[in-house]
Design goal:
42% of the residues lie in helices and 16% in strands. With 343 residues, it is of the alpha/beta class. It has a domain of 238 residues: Rossmann fold, CATH 3.40.50. Strands 3-2-1-4-5-6-11 form a seven-stranded parallel sheet, sandwiched between helices. A two-stranded parallel ribbon has the order 7-10. Strands 8-13 form a two-stranded parallel ribbon. The N and C termini lie far apart (53 Å). Bound molecules: nicotinamide-adenine-dinucleotide and 2'deoxy-thymidine-5'-diphospho-alpha-D-glucose.
């Protein structure tokens, strides 16, 4: 590895830093880079929660703003003399994108475009765009997504992320803007909003509520601990090649039903809680990620074994009931009724 190519930010802006992965990234970045100035820009939507960054308040600046608001983004970049951006902010939930797709195009496409344009004008030296393996669509029983796999999204969420990736690539090609894209598989870990598979099943099981499994439960996801994802984003920020795409995964494929049974076993709850419900429309059958490029070129590798990571995550949700009780607000309950009420 060529050490002269290492990029060291002096002032980092993290969009979506109050969300699940963003807050995990901010936590680990602050610990490993005490001398770098960190600013979190977040609109604090239903998914954003400053309690995710509890005890770190003195270590970063916070700007409450919408990434679609060009003036606010411009001001944040200037006020904090930002030289690098890690862009997590997005609408991130596939089911919400089916219930209400427009906000996904607005936030994920328009918002990303605003971030790019303002960062380019400001002279940002590195911009990491955090994307997803969902832009590749669905896999059959064999093989894994590489960076060359065709872009073939199925949900409005995945389409909005794919569109934002294309705008990022256009900025890199047309303006030589130093942007890099990561495409990661399903994350799990502490502070995940309790409407995604693992925290939803965990909390329902703890409360002896039905566990709504979509379709036949045999859709496969490739699970990675969010701390491993954060380490990959850091590797890309400091050593990634501008204009490139890096896939991130941990070769840890599980059919959904097996994850659900594992949670029930760990909590000592009966499988009779499992309830098969109507499938998600256009439900991608299988994701699997080939991470050989980032492993080979940047020396990153997922380090957290799934049995340890999932045990730690389950223990975290058991110990942090106060956190999830508070985030399960009125807005969340209304979403839950719309999503599962008639299935
Ligand atoms: P999340 O929904 O938990 O958090 C999103 C954050 O973005 C929240 O803090 C929210 O307040 C903020 N946000 C939303 N709209 C905003 C706006 N208009 N302006 C400013 N802030 C806004 O999401 P997550 O699961 O942490 O995902 C973070 C990123 O990683 C997303 O870009 C997502 O596409 C990507 N990703 C997620 C996963 C996963 O498994 N969760 C996997 C791969 C990639
Ligand atoms: O692959 C990366 C993506 O992973 C990210 O880009 C997204 O932001 C993130 O939300 C996640 O998308 P998924 O749609 O895979 O995650 P979700 O947790 O919603 O669902 C995981 C699987 O579990 C999926 O096959 C659908 C199924 N599922 C989900 C829920 C919420 C159920 O069977 N029942 C449920 O109630």
């Amino acid at each position: 590895m060529n050490l002269s190519k290492i990029f060291a930010p002096t002032s980092l802006l993290v969009t979506g830093g109050a969300g699940f992965i963003g807050s995990n990234f901010v936590r680990s970045f602050i610990e490993s880079h005490p001398d770098v100035r960190v600013t979190v820009l977040d609109a604090l939507t239903y998914a954003g929660n400053l309690e995710n960054l509890a005890n770190l308040e003195s270590r970063f600046s916070f700007v409450k703003a919408d990434i679609c608001d060009a003036e606010a983004v411009r001001k944040a970049l200037a006020d904090h003399a930002v030289d690098a951006v890690v862009h997590f902010a997005a609408e991130s939930h596939v089911d919400r994108s089916i219930l209400g797709p427009m906000i996904f195009t607005q936030t994920n496409v328009l918002g990303t475009h605003v971030m790019l344009e303002e960062s380019r004008r400001h002279g940002v030296a590195r911009f990491v765009h955090v994307s997803t393996d969902e832009v590749y669509g669905s896999l059959g029983p064999e093989g894994a997504f590489t960076e060359q796999s065709p872009i073939d999204p199925t949900s409005p969420y995945a389409a909005s992320k794919a569109a934002s990736d294309l705008v990022v690539q256009a900025y890199a090609k047309t303006f030589g803007f130093p942007a890099i894209i990561t495409r990661c598989s399903n994350n799990y870990g502490p502070w995940q909003f309790p409407e995604k598979l693992i925290p939803l099943m965990l909390i329902n099981a703890m409360n002896d509520k039905a566990l709504p499994v979509y379709g036949d439960g045999m859709n496969v996801r490739d699970w990675i601990h969010t701390r491993d994802h954060s380490a990959a984003v850091l590797a890309v920020l400091s050593r990634g090649m501008p204009g490139e795409v890096y896939n991130v995964g941990s070769s840890n494929e599980w059919p959904n039903i097996e994850i659900v049974k594992l949670i029930l076993r760990t909590l000592g709850k009966p499988e009779s809680l499992i309830t098969y419900v109507k499938d998600r429309p256009a439900h991608d059958r299988r994701y699997a990620i080939d991470s050989s490029k980032i492993e080979r070129e940047l020396g990153w590798k997922a380090m957290i074994p799934f049995d340890e990571g999932i045990a730690e995550t389950i223990a975290w949700y058991r110990a942090n009931e106060r956190w999830w009780q508070r985030v399960m607000s009125g807005e969340y309950l209304e979403y839950y009724e719309r999503q599962y009420g008639k299935r």
